[in-house]
Amino acid sequence: MTALVLVVIIALWEAASVSVGNAGILPSPLRVVNDFCSEFIYDPGLVYLGIKTPSYGLNIAWTLALALIAWLIGGVLGMMIGLWASRSQIVRNLAGPVFYVFGAIPALVLAPFATIWFGHGAVVEVAIVAFYCFITVGMISLSAGLTFSRSTEEYTATLGLGKSALFRSVTLRGTMPENLVGMRIALAMSIAVQVTIELLGSQYGVGRIITIRASEGNVSAVLGMVLAMGLIALLFDWGCKLVSKRVTQWRG
Asked: In the prediction, which pLDDT does 248 show?
């Protein structure tokens, strides 16, 4: 089904490109792919502009590396704090407002303040992206923990399991399907937020390249980078889906 949708989109894009008749406004899919591939390894234009990573491939790798690191850090912390908050009123009183307040603030609003206060750099970017992953997964894990049956935990506790073992074996495992959904959502968000931060003035990454090419009016390059990141996000989501099925196969 996904492949059929992609084929339809490409066909409509090609038809629109032919109708417009101006590659500077709407290049054809083939033109975008050719331009992207020719500059994937090395782009003399970026060298001329003094870019330290003069290839699309290096900048994509940079963006993905930071996004994945932030996703793992923020996602795991969000899962743990969210589940802990579902079992502790004190933690819930502290974490709940943070989840719901910052969950309503777009990254495009918060990121400029963070970069003004702390500057640009890999550590700052990872921290911002990890924070949003933490918020996203934390909210979902908190909800999953609150709806998970307490009777299951109480019954298992009568078998002699300690609190930590009960959390690992029952609470964490029982809410894992919802937690993994949160991780999938956070993965897509991590890539989007990372690119957004780079658009604000980073020296490396996809957002930096999009900013440069957009200022030049290079529609083909911008479309190529956007489509590349979209396809990569789809592949990552597909991988997460496979992992989720394997981890939760006990559900049948």
From this structure: 75
SS3 for 166-185 is HHHHHHHHHCHHHHHHHHHH
Please tell me the pTM assigned to this model. Answer: 0.87
State the Cα–Cα distance between residues 203 and 10, nearest whole angstrom.
32
Task: Output the six-digit token pair for 109.
Answer: 């609003």
Q: Give pLDDT, residue 155.
A: 65
Residue whose token pair is 């990141």: 229
Nearest CA-CA partner of 222 in 8, 17, 26: 26
DSSP code for 105: S
Residues 6 or more apart from 131 whose CB is under 8 A from it? 74, 102
CA 171 to chain centre: 26
Residues of the chain with pLDDT below 70 are: 1-2, 152-162, 250-252
Taking the alpha carbons at both ends of the chain, their separation in whole angstroms is 24
Dist. CA 230–CA 210, nearest whole Å: 14
Please report the pLDDT score of residue 13 as a whole number: 87
Let me know how many helices (H) and strands (E) the chain has, helices first.
13, 0
Six-digit token string for 119: 């500057």
Tell me what pLDDT residue 2 has: 67
Q: How many whole angstroms separate alpha carbon 55 and alpha carbon 44?
A: 9
